[in-house]
Amino acid sequence: MIGAGKIKQYSNILEKPLSKGKQEVSLSAFAFLFSELVQYNQTQVDNISELERRLEDAGYAVGARVLELLCHRDKGNRRETRLLGILSFVHSTVWKVLFGKVADSLEKGTEHEDEYMISEKDLLVNKFISVPKDMGTFNCGAFVAGIVRGVLDGAEFPAVVTAHFVPMEGLQRARTTILIKFAEEVLRREARLG
């Protein structure tokens, strides 16, 4: 055969390498699936905080798997060991893989040493969601907070991660802030390493 290159044939899917491949998912497909996830969980709970907790739990499982995939594929099975390193990894690498861009901002809390915030003006999971008035402050960003918590826990940086709406001047919709409050052990370990 002239001009035909060698194409390796794999007998099963487990033998295929974890190359980057095509990374995009149809936005309409994601919006539909996420909407179904929210609606299903809404029928299973009695209040908003329980619904947000269930979304966070679903996101946690995603975050654990995203960390495993990215560490294997991009980092040669190495993981971050420093606080700023893991925050930068979440803010840039994880965000880019999940949402196609780096998060709008990463900030350190001014009142507490153990708090950091990742802010996004138009978080994808809140983009196509209209919250009924009777649901008040329901924030689908709880799913993303779960993803962040899954990544951090998997990397041995336990933290409480929550999603909040923060009103901004000049914006019709409030921006979403993912608040990360690290466990005391993380700060002690960071002080020991630093």
Tell me what the structure shows:
Part of the multisubunit TRAPP (transport protein particle) complex. Keywords: Endoplasmic reticulum, ER-Golgi transport, Golgi apparatus, Transport. This is Trafficking protein particle complex subunit. This protein is of the alpha+beta class. Helices cover 46% and strands 13% of the residues. It has helices at 27-44, 48-74, 83-99, 124-127, 141-154, 184-193; strands at 105-108, 115-120, 159-166, 175-182. A four-stranded antiparallel β-sheet has the order 1-2-4-3. It starts with 26 loop residues before the first helix and ends with a helix.
Characterize this entry briefly.
Helices cover 46% and strands 13% of the residues. The protein has 194 residues and is an alpha+beta fold.
What is the gyration radius calculated from CA atoms? 19 Å
Give the overall average pLDDT. Answer: 85
Cross-sheet strand order for the largest sheet? 1-2-4-3
Shape: globular
The level of helicity is: 40-55%
Count the E strands: 4
Strand content range? 5-15%
Flag low-confidence runs: 1-5
Number of helices: 6
Structural class: alpha+beta
Largest sheet: 4 strands, antiparallel
Give the termini separation.
60 Å
List the secondary-structure elements in sequence, H or E.
Answer: HHHEEHHEEH
Keywords: Endoplasmic reticulum, ER-Golgi transport, Golgi apparatus, Transport
Family: Belongs to the TRAPP small subunits family. BET3 subfamily.
Subunit structure: Part of the multisubunit TRAPP (transport protein particle) complex.
Organism: Hibiscus trionum
